[in-house]
Every structure is written in structure tokens, then in C-alpha cells.
Amino acid sequence: MASPWNKVPPALLSFLLLFLWLPNPSASQQEPCQTCRDLASNFLKGLERTQRENFGGGNTAWEEEKLAKYANSETRLLEVLEGVCATSDFACNQLLEQSEDHVEQWWFHEQQQHPDFFQWLCMDAQKLCCSPGTYGPDCHTCPGGAQKPCSGYGQCDGDGTRGGTGLCMCQTGYGGPFCSECGDGYYEAARNDSHLVCAECYRACGRCSGPEDSSCLRCKRGWMLHDRRCIDIDECGTEMAHCRANQFCVNTEGSYECRDCAKACIGCMGAGPSRCKKCNKGYQRDGVKCLDVDECAGEVEEPVCTGANEACENTDGGYRCICAEGYVRKDGICEEDKPPDAPEKGFFDDITDDEVVVLQQMFFGAIICALATLAAKGDMVFTAIFIGAVAAMAGYWLSERSDRVLDGFIKGR
Ligand SMILES: *[C@@H]1O[C@H](CO)[C@@H](O)[C@H](O)[C@H]1NC(C)=O
After folding, report:
1. What residue intervals traverse the membrane (predicted)?
2. How close is the Cα of 211 to the center of ligand 1, in Å?
């Protein structure tokens, strides 16, 4: 037979195979029997789809004959096979390739004797599946029999496949290796040859003879049977309860809880500061309660907080040294909390004293230059003023202050 792959050029085929080799998470994990089951199911769908098709159409006698020919033709088989596997389903395509000869064999020779294609291919030919009610490599019978695996109240692991453990996973309410009994907390409400009805016991009963609270035969963990009733065990008074050192035990229905003691306690018998065994550091007993000690109470006579401008603040179980009002902590020290004063800065505020001196000299220099210019024009009055100014400048230079300035200039400032 011409396989559907024969039409594909080899280069394209290898490319296609390479593409199909890429991991396909949906198909790679599938159980082999299920792959075959899907393949067989798609094959049958293909047969249905092509049932009314033929080479042409119509219903004349000649065409009826043609239809009969088509029904078992290679053309129809190829058409069916084309739709069996999705292109991306590697497992299906691989299985189809492996099964090619078998499928052909069935199509042309075995159809009549073996009408069940799934059984023929997946169970008999490929040995990927077992018949229903059997499991494992050798198709063992499931517990409870192949007719009614797990008594009809559970799932036999690996049922119908060549895998699985064959163990029964029972439905809720059913139990035992064959799911033929009622499970924990359930009783037989009805039973006949074919059916078992299990109903739930009264809440804490592990085993019971009926639905009533007084029909308990065994109790669940944390409960105690008394007069066919289950009563809660108070674990807190017994060895059964295990709570940590600074916790106390609270009984609950069927169990117990451990809760943390109050902050005021070292060990406790219950919730709150009045159930302390011992008072915690920073607390002292006042009657029955452990109350917070106000460490700041003696602050006036004997200061607790000794830092400058500090104040004491009492807290639950301790105290804190904070900065007194109007002070804030900066680098660990309480400093006066002044809002940073930001006066408007004048243009000359950034100018240093030395620069002022230089500016003064430039100012005087400019005046002397101006006077010198006017004096050069021959104006007697300005000449006199110029000479006076030079004399005044000379006096100025000789003063102590100008000595210092000169010093500065000599040093290269
Ligand atoms: C067994 O019980 C079920 C439900 O309780 C009932 O449907 C069925 O007919 C009974 N079968 C026989 C054989 O009594």
C-alpha cells in the first residue's frame, strides 16, 4: 500500500520529522494505550465521515456499484488515515507509522472476522491496551473481577491499559481492597446482591451501625466512646497535649490548639495577663494580674533617661528615652528643633573680606585713573584733586590694614 508519507518528498519529510521531534508537552506524557485509543477512535470517525462519499456522486445503479467499490478501497483508507493524527501529535504519528502494515492487514483482510478495530489494533496487534477490567503488562484481572472492577465502587489503577498497579481507589464512603465494604465513618444503609449503599455516620463516629448519635461502635481520633456515643477528649488536661513553653492549651472538638501567652507572662494557664504563671520582665503582679511597670514614674527624683534634653516615655513592658518637647534627635543627640532660618541672601554675602579689599582697590584705582585722565587734559582743579587722592591713597597703603592686604598679594592671592 502507498503510505500517506510516500507522497511527501524526502527532504520535506525529514524536516517534518525534525519538527515533530520537538517536545510536545500535551502528547509526550500520554499513556501509550490512550494514544492508541485516540488513534482508533479517530480512525472510526474517519470511516463514518467517508461512509457516504464515493468517486463521484449520485445514486444510479452504476454509481451504487462504484460506492460499493469505494467502501473497501485504498482511496478511502488513505482518506481516513489522513485525518487520524494532528500534525503536531508526535506520539500519534509515530504509532500510525508503526501500525501501517497492521492497519492495511485489517482493512483488506481482517475486517470481517475482527470488526472491533480498537481491540484488533491496540489490544491484539500492538499490545498497548488490555481489555476492560484488566491491567498491567500481562493484563491481570482487576480486584473484584473484570466484569465489575472494584465492585463498581472504585477505579482499578491501570484498568484497560498495559500499566498500573491494579489497586482499587474507592469512591467516598467505600473501602476495603475491593471497595466492597463501607469506608471509615460510613455504615451499610442497604445491601443486596448487586448493590451496596453506604451512608455517613453521626459526625465523630469512625464506625457505626446507623445514623443516630447513639449508634457509634468506634470513634474518630480525638473522641472517646462512652455509652455508644462519641464524646470529645479534653487533651489539655492530659499527656496528649504538647504545647511550647510560652503557650497555653485550648481544647477543641476532636482536637486541641496551642495559643501564645500574653506578653505580660512567662508561662500561662490561659489567655490574658491574669492567667500568668510568672510575670514577664517589665511587669509586676498586682493582685491576680501582671501589670506593666511604669519605669518613668520616678523620673523627677531620679532620672531614667540621662541624655541631655531627653524625656522618659513608658511603653508596655518597658520604656523609651525620647527627646524632650522642642528637641529632635540628630546623630543620637537631642538638639533644639529650630526651623532653619533662611534670610534673603544679598549679592555680596558670599564675598570674602579679601575680595572686598580687592574691590575697594579696583574702585579707588578707577577714580584715580579718571582723575589722571582729567588732569592730563590740563584742568587745574582735577589735577589738584588727583594729587590729593594719590596722597590719600599713599596714606592708606601705609596703614596696618593695607600692609596685610599687600602681604596677601605678595603671597599670590
Ligand atoms: C438492589 O438495590 C438497588 C438499590 O438499592 C436496586 O436498584 C436494585 O434493584 C436491587 N437489586 C436487587 C437484585 O435486589
Report:
1. 381-399
2. 21
Name 35's Cβ contacts closer than 8 Å, sequence gap at least 6: 27, 91, 92, 95, 128
Provide the pLDDT confidence category of residue 413 given band limits of 50, 70 and 90. very low
- C-alpha of residue 203 to centroid of ligand 1, in Å: 28
pLDDT value of position 36: 97
Domain with CATH 2.10.25 in the chain: 298-334
Residue 226, pLDDT above cutoff 80: yes
Q: Report, as an integer, the average pLDDT of 348-367.
A: 60
Average model confidence (pLDDT) for the chain?
83
Ligand 1 pocket, residues with Cβ under 6 angstroms: 190, 192-195, 197
Ligand 1: which atom is nearest the Cα of residue 197?
Answer: 5
Q: Looking at the domain that runs over 298-334, which CATH code has it been given?
A: 2.10.25
Residue 284 phi/psi, 5-degree rounding, is: -140, 150
168 alpha carbon to ligand 1 midpoint, in Å?
Answer: 23
pLDDT of 31-82, one tens digit each? 999 999 999 999 999 999 998 765 555 566 777 777 778 888 999 999 999 9
- What CATH number labels 135-232? 2.10.220
Degrees (nearest 5) of the Cα angle 176, 182, 186?
Answer: 135
Q: Mutation test of ligand 1: which of 148, 193, 194, 196 has the most ligand atoms closer than 8 Å to its C-beta?
A: 194
Q: How far, in Å, CA of 316 to CA of 305, rounded?
A: 17
Pocket test for ligand 1, best of 191, 192, 197 (most atoms within 8 A of CB): 192
Q: What is the pLDDT of residues 4-36, one digit of tens each?
A: 445 445 554 454 444 444 444 444 467 999 999
pLDDT at 358 exceeding the cut of 70: no
Cα 86 to ligand 1 centre (Å): 45
Category of 121 on φ-ψ map: left (φ > 0), alpha (ψ -120 to 50) or beta:
alpha
Which grid coordinates are listed for 64?
451504487
Q: Atom of ligand 1 at shortest distance to CA of 193?
A: 13
Residues of the chain with CATH 2.10.220: 135-232
